[in-house]
Structures are given as structure tokens and as C-alpha cells.
Amino acid sequence: MAQYSAMLVDLDGTLMAADIISDRVADAVRQVERIIPVSIATGRRASDVQQYANYLGLKAPQICNGGATILDPFSGQQIWNSHMPEGHARSIIDLLDRNGIPFIATHPLGDAESVSAISHWDLTRISGMDIPESKADEILEAFDCYDDLYLVKVYLHYNGWWAVDFTASGVHKGRSAQELARSMGVETSDFIAAGDSFNDYPMLKVSGYRIAMASAPPEMKAIAHYIAPRVEEDGLAVAIEEVVLPRLQSSEV
User: Fold this and answer.
1) Where are the alpha helices (DSSP H) in the chain?
2) Strand-pair category, 125-131 with 110-112
3) What pTM does this model have?
4) Which of 251, 248, 239, 247 is nearest to 28 (CA)?
5) Cα separations (Å) of 232 from 14, 56, 134, 147, 239?
6) β-pairing verdict for 103-107 and 78-81
7) CB hemisphere CA count around 25 (13 angstroms)
8) How sure is the predictor about 1, in pLDDT bands with cuts at 50, 70 and 90?
């Protein structure tokens, strides 16, 4: 049985639904945390990942901003961070603003949700929020020619809309998993990963054991070792109980 060094879990649609982590899922994650470190890997901002990591008692570095930031869950200090070219960041914000699309623009000192509130253009991540999937596809197409950007559409499980996340080229959850593995002195093949959306695909692809939720797109299910029930059915807890804990407990023997 393979030995694993950490577990990476997506937040919305995997760890929780509608901003609520069920008691069963929380208990299952805490059981894993007692054996190996658990890191949330989410497209959400730093304050959100700190909140949920602290609730679950997670001590390892946590991943936010779609993989563009790794932070200490206690102090909030950034351990690793990336930013996109300023010219591209301005072009993205201009397009979103002109089309009346809500956005979150994140830089090392905080977040902005309007053009006037952006005081720093070394943006880590920009997310166009609450849009139909067809509009998300249009935005992806508009920026497809930008080689030094990474774009991905994300299903917003809590409201049924979509988002488009922008980060620097090559910066995604898979990249942050590699940075986290490097800091731990291990390989990403030593990781267990669980996710449900397109932005989780790079993380699952580099990990040694891959869990896709039932709501995941076909591309993710195709590379998964285990397909968990939906988040509403406590699918992550089922995966942990049925395959993760048995593997971890076997490797301890």
C-alpha cells in the first residue's frame, strides 16, 4: 500500500455545500488530519480558507486564490504567491467592468470588487463572478490568445452560476500542489486529492490518489481512482471512510 504525505481538498462542491461543512464531513477530515496534514485548495480568498481551516483544525499551509497563493492558516502570512502581468490585469478588469460582470481582484494586501478600489495592480487572481456558462465560455475565448495567462471556468456550487478565474500562466492548483510538495520535501505523487470542478483537474492530475465528486466533469472522472457521491450526500466523508482512512491506516502498520 502506498504511503501518503498529505491530502488536498477543494472547498465548494467537495468539502462543503452552500457554505456549510456537514458534521460527518468535518469529522472525517479531522480523522485524516490526525494521520497526515490536510490542506484546503480553493479558488476563494485567503480569509475564507483561514476560516474553514481553523474550524477544521488544519495546521498545514493552505491553498487559495485558485492556486496562486499558499498561506499559513494561523497568521495568514503568505508562504508563496504569484501575480499576473499588469497590462493583462488591466485588460481583464476593463472587460469585466464594461460588461457589468461582478469581480474579485486579489493582490498581496487584500481584495477589491470595483475598479476604484484597486490600489495595487500586482494582482494575484481575478475572478469574474456570477455569470451564465455561455458568458463564461465567451470570456475564455476572448482571452484564449494570451499565452501568459491561465484561465479556467468554475461552477459556483453555492448559487448555480459560473465564474472565470484568471491567474498567471502555469499558476493553478496543480502548481501550488507542486510548491507545497517541494516545501515538505516530498513528491505530489505522495498526495491524495479530491475535487469537483475544472479548476481541480490540474491538482488531481499531479496527485498520487485522485478522488472526483459525482458532479465532476467527465475529464476529471476519467483520471480519478475513486468517484465519490455528491457533496449533498457527504461524498467526501464517504470517500474518506471507504478508501482514504483504510489506505492511511494500512500504511501505518
Assistant:
1) 23-33, 46-56, 86-98, 133-142, 173-184, 201-206, 218-223, 235-239, 245-252
2) unpaired
3) 0.92
4) 239
5) 9, 19, 26, 37, 13
6) unpaired
7) 25
8) very low
